[in-house]
């Protein structure tokens, strides 16, 4: 089985003492079977909230208000809108069709079951296997995610492991589910470069075999270049640039994307490495008090008063499949400010 996911006009607001605060503003994207879409942006831009909303893992209404659709369509063409499902239907879909690797693994591992049992359970959820066979498969997965002495680790509990080991266990559980759709929220951030490369390789293999669609959230442009087909840049809860990895990394047009890429040394662009997001002066705006106009204008070197601080820019297509949100992009291209 394989499936694609189409998110349309997804918005998320959190209730506060002074009313609902919008954190994600009408974002849309889709991912085909076998495709990896990377989601990048500074801390606080709404990446985790987006993925948690799709998985329906946020506090229910009225604490949280979710609008829009997240439709998973299997290869027989049957669509299911995750946003509209109840908890029972969701449990089935989550274990089966769509899995998530969290930024913080401790909260999502079960403290009272051994690592081996949790992986074996994930395998047996979608495949009829004997306990012994599932255990053998769990052992092999622990080995594949780079856990030393995997046979010993099978019988340990999550709290007995270090943060990096727990992260690998999380990844093993998600892979054991063999989901159609995988959402990975900064899954390799805590891991060293060698293990990271190993896990990216593992994800790619599984993707090739199963046609898995992946939403990959990361801070690392090296990882984007290595694993993704397309990339989406998020700022203050909006997609501000989206396109193929080639287009966006080699000719970013939205000033925010350019800022993120600016301090990444050229060699790292080309040859990957540990290319972290660059730092841009200033801060991501408080969702409760967003600036008027373009949310990025207070930090933007190309800010033009009367334009950028007035109208919020629409997402426009600048060439096939490459979209961005900037009122001045044409001018900036003419000025040579943007390649
Ligand atoms: N449960 C919550 N209640 C209220 N605000 C939240 C909650 N979770 C996240 N936020 C806010 O939503 C914004 C986006 O957060 P998040 O999605 O975690 O960012 P990212 O993953 O891109 O670093 C932040 O301003 C954060 O403070
Ligand atoms: Mg996050």
TrEMBL record:
<keyword id="KW-1003">Cell membrane</keyword>
<dbReference type="InterPro" id="IPR050388">
    <property type="entry name" value="ABC_Ni/Peptide_Import"/>
</dbReference>
<keyword id="KW-0813">Transport</keyword>
<comment type="function">
    <text>Part of the ABC transporter DppABCDF involved in the uptake of various di/tripeptides. Is also involved in the uptake of phaseolotoxin, a toxic tripeptide inhibiting the enzyme ornithine carbamoyltransferase. Responsible for energy coupling to the transport system.</text>
</comment>
<comment type="similarity">
    <text>Belongs to the ABC transporter superfamily.</text>
</comment>
<dbReference type="Pfam" id="PF00005">
    <property type="entry name" value="ABC_tran"/>
</dbReference>
<dbReference type="GO" id="GO:0016887">
    <property type="term" value="F:ATP hydrolysis activity"/>
</dbReference>
<feature type="domain" description="ABC transporter">
    <location>
        <begin position="5"/>
        <end position="261"/>
    </location>
</feature>
<dbReference type="GO" id="GO:0055085">
    <property type="term" value="P:transmembrane transport"/>
</dbReference>
<dbReference type="Pfam" id="PF08352">
    <property type="entry name" value="oligo_HPY"/>
</dbReference>
<dbReference type="GO" id="GO:0015833">
    <property type="term" value="P:peptide transport"/>
</dbReference>
<keyword id="KW-0067">ATP-binding</keyword>
<dbReference type="GO" id="GO:0005524">
    <property type="term" value="F:ATP binding"/>
</dbReference>
<dbReference type="InterPro" id="IPR017871">
    <property type="entry name" value="ABC_transporter-like_CS"/>
</dbReference>
<comment type="subunit">
    <text>The complex is composed of two ATP-binding proteins (DppD and DppF), two transmembrane proteins (DppB and DppC) and a solute-binding protein (DppA1-A5). Five orthologous SBPs (DppA1-A5) are present in P.aeruginosa, which increases the substrate specificity of the DppBCDF transporter.</text>
</comment>
<dbReference type="InterPro" id="IPR003593">
    <property type="entry name" value="AAA+_ATPase"/>
</dbReference>
<keyword id="KW-0547">Nucleotide-binding</keyword>
<protein>
    <recommendedName>
        <fullName>ABC-type dipeptide transporter</fullName>
        <ecNumber>7.4.2.9</ecNumber>
    </recommendedName>
</protein>
<dbReference type="InterPro" id="IPR013563">
    <property type="entry name" value="Oligopep_ABC_C"/>
</dbReference>
<dbReference type="InterPro" id="IPR027417">
    <property type="entry name" value="P-loop_NTPase"/>
</dbReference>
<keyword id="KW-0472">Membrane</keyword>
<dbReference type="InterPro" id="IPR003439">
    <property type="entry name" value="ABC_transporter-like_ATP-bd"/>
</dbReference>
<dbReference type="GO" id="GO:0005886">
    <property type="term" value="C:plasma membrane"/>
</dbReference>
């Amino acid at each position: 089985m394989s499936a694609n996911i189409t998110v349309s006009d997804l918005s998320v607001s959190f209730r506060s003492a002074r009313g609902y605060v919008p954190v994600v503003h009408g974002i849309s994207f889709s991912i085909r079977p076998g495709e990896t879409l990377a989601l990048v942006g500074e801390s606080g831009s709404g990446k985790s909230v987006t993925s948690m909303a799709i998985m329906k893992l946020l506090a229910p209404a009225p604490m949280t208000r979710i609008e829009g659709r997240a439709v998973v369509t299997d290869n027989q063409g049957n669509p299911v809108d995750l946003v509209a499902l109840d908890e029972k239907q969701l449990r089935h879909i989550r274990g089966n069709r769509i899995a998530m690797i969290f930024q913080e693994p401790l909260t999502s591992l079960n403290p009272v079951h051994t690592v081996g049992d949790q992986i074996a359970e994930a395998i047996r959820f979608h495949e009829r296997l004997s306990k012994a066979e599932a255990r053998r498969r769990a052992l092999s997965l622990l080995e594949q995610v780079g856990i030393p002495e995997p046979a010993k680790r099978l019988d340990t509990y999550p709290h007995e492991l270090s943060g990096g080991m727990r992260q690998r266990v999380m990844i093993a559980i998600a892979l054991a589910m063999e989901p159609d759709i995988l959402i990975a929220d900064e899954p390799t951030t805590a891991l060293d470069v060698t293990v990271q490369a190993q896990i990216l390789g593992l994800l790619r293999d599984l993707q090739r075999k199963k046609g898995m669609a992946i939403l990959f959230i990361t801070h690392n442009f090296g990882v984007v270049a290595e694993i993704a087909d397309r990339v989406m840049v998020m700022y203050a809860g909006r997609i501000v640039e989206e396109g193929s990895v080639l287009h966006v990394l080699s000719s970013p047009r939205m000033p925010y994307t350019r800022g993120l890429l600016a301090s990444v040394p050229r060699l790292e662009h080309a040859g990957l490495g540990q290319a972290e997001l660059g730092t841009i002066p200033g801060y991501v705006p408080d969702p409760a008090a967003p600036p008027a106009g373009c949310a990025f204008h207070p930090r933007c070197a190309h800010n033009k008063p009367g334009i950028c601080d007035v109208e919020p820019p629409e997402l426009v297509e600048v060439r096939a499949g490459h979209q961005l949100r900037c009122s001045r992009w044409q001018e900036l291209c003419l000025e040579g400010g943007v390649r």
